[in-house]
Amino acid sequence: METAEYHNLDLVEREHWYYAGKRELVHAWIDRVRPVRRNDTWLDFGAGTGIFALSMRERCRVLALDAFPESRALLARHFPTDQILAPEGDRIPLADASIAGVSALDVLEHIEDDQGAVAEIHRVLEPGGIFVGTVPADMRLWSDWDEALHHVRRYNRDAWRALFSSGDWNVAHLAFTNVLAYPAVYAIRRLRRNRMRNAPSAPRSEDRVPARPMNWILRRLFVATGKARWLDAPFGVSLIVVATKRDARLHGSTGPR
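The chain above was modelled as a monomer; its predicted structure follows.
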């Protein structure tokens, strides 16, 4: 993504209801599906500023991988060199079945070959290891924000599910998230599209933390609906998947192809 976007993200990510709520939601699903143990190793794939990796460091050993030097410079503020990884071409520089869990939070939408990236994540996971991924949803929400972040796509549910539809995964949860915010986000982005024609440098709502009471309310709504198993909304601003790697010895799978 644009170099300036790392700075923008670093300023708001710790407090903004979406980013803070996303971390809380992901931790809740990890605890529900496959709790991490102290001796586990976790890989944050596309670690960005490193704030989620930092939250996992309290629970287990963490490796942070990112393709961009700007990100790795930010990661170096918090992690020693041997815990910061760069991909080797399209490969994750780790051995097969060596990682207990992988997160890719708003990462796969940046990657042309998202199927290949998911196959690599599967390769490094140990049998029974957990993957948690989030992506932006719905191309109707496409905006200058997606372009500044160098998104390749926003996902619909079918395209997201297709990445995990092989016999190599057990999908514990796949759903839209940020459901209640969808009407407002849709309206704001349509209005912004119109404003951009006349004021290309108009400030973005994504770069500002709302007032404290509203920020708290939005976070609580985001997390509560995202944790609800019973909620199967037909739309949302984002999608989440929580899946575990099938054990080929038990299921007869030959691994990702």
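The radius of gyration is 18 Å.
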